[in-house]
Specification:
The longest helix has 13 residues. This protein has a twelve-stranded mixed β-sheet with strand order 7-8-9-6-5-4-3-2-1-10-11-12. About 3% of the residues have low confidence. The chain is built from eleven helices and twelve strands. It has one domain: Aldolase class I (TIM Barrel), CATH 3.20.20. With 334 residues, it is an alpha/beta fold. The structure holds S-adenosylmethionine and iron/sulfur cluster. S-adenosylmethionine binds next to β3, β5 and α11.
């Protein structure tokens, strides 16, 4: 680390950065995007070089884990150049380089990702039924994603499956998904659907399946052993006594995880969000474009971290969506 570490006003060290490298995607998941999205003009996006400078700046300030996301990160043209460049930091300040993907392009890129030092990928997959997969992703095709997952395994990548829990949609598949992950040795995390984007309020509340419910259902079949493991994020883990599987729950709505938050997010346009659930953000693109010297960038990052809020206030408990933020998940990258 070249500079003093980033510590926020609540004494939380910022060691984890998620970077969205594109707002585009080859899928249109109903809970994430509208079918007809207006994407950003190219000049708004950080270039691959700017993304590299930005990530390198954060790493020089003590970030140890970098997760690349989107939109769909693997549809960004030239993204492997970025991974290749970022890999130079591994073991030199950076402990982990990883990504969250819909899996559609993994068959193409898994070997190269592994070669760039990526060891784990998160693949989003909400159902094992071809027709339902096409319905929820609108444009996605399950066999293509399954081939991607197999390629990732062959390349030696550890795969974690992210499932958004959707009432009336994948409720009936709960045990099938758990069994499928056990058989294929994938880790598994369930995500509670969040009030993002501009999906109709009614639909969002209809789809809301609290993970407390999902957990109770799992407990009917398995012995759930709580694990102390914390990643500084919203995930909590249990082990299934009968199979030894580790299962994660990401419950931003029903569980307050903010006190141990170690992370910030940057959008593909270079906006730094200090909290997923708040609107406050800092523009990092201007300092990046203003000069080739990183001093202005580092100063802007520090000034922003000094404003990181204590937490957010999503709340479904009054049967309305309050604390909602208007941007799409594909904008901040989840
Ligand atoms: N395209 C990649 C993917 O799908 O994995 C990366 C970006 S995507 C925005 C990151 C994660 O956010 C995915 O696991 C997706 O399921 C999740 N996500 C998107 N919209 C969400 C919402 N409204 N609530 C909860 N999770 C959401
Ligand atoms: Fe694309 Fe991921 Fe959003 Fe689905 S969740 S539309 S795959 S960005």
């Amino acid at each position: 680390m070249e500079h003093a570490p980033l510590i926020d006003p609540f004494a939380r060290p910022i060691t984890y950065l998620r970077v969205s490298v594109t707002d585009r995607c080859d899928f249109r998941c109903t809970y994430c995007m509208a079918e007809h999205m207006q994407f950003l003009p190219k000049k708004e996006l950080l270039t691959l070089e700017e993304l590299d400078r930005l990530c390198s700046g954060f790493i020089s300030l003590g970030v140890r884990k970098l997760r690349i996301t989107g939109g769909e990160p693997l549809v960004r043209r030239g993204i492997m150049e970025f991974f290749r460049a970022a890999s130079r930091h591994l073991g030199q300040g950076l402990d982990e380089l990883t990504l969250t993907t819909n899996g559609s392009q993994l068959a193409r890129f898994a070997d190269e990702l592994a070669d760039c030092g990526v060891r784990r990928v998160n693949v989003s997959l909400d159902t094992l039924d071809d027709a339902k997969f096409a319905q929820i992703t609108r444009w996605g095709r399950l066999p293509q994603v399954q081939a991607g997952i197999e390629a990732a395994k062959r390349a030696g990548l550890r795969v974690k499956i992210n499932v958004v829990a959707l009432k009336g949609f994948n409720e009936a598949e709960l045990f099938d998904l758990v069994d499928w992950c056990a058989v294929n040795d994938h880790d598994l995390t369930f995500i509670e659907v969040m009030p993002m984007g501009d999906m109709g309020e009614e639909q969002r509340l209809d789809q809301y399946w609290p993970l407390s419910d999902l957990r109770a259902r799992l407990a009917q079949r398995f012995t759930l052993i709580d694990l102390a493991e914390r990643t500084g994020g919203p995930a909590r883990y249990v082990k299934l006594g009968e199979t030894g599987q580790k299962i994660g729950f990401i419950t931003p709505l029903t569980h307050n995880f903010c006190e141990s938050c170690n992370r910030v997010r940057v959008t593909c346009t270079g906006e730094l969000y200090m909290c997923l659930g708040q609107e406050d953000r800092a523009d990092l693109r201007t300092p990046l474009r203003e000069s080739d010297d990183d001093a202005a960038l580092i100063a802007a990052i520090r000034a922003a971290i000094a404003r990181k809020p204590k937490g957010h206030d999503f709340d479904y408990s009054r049967q309305t969506v309050s604390g909602q933020v208007s941007r799409h998940m594909s904008h901040t990258g989840g």
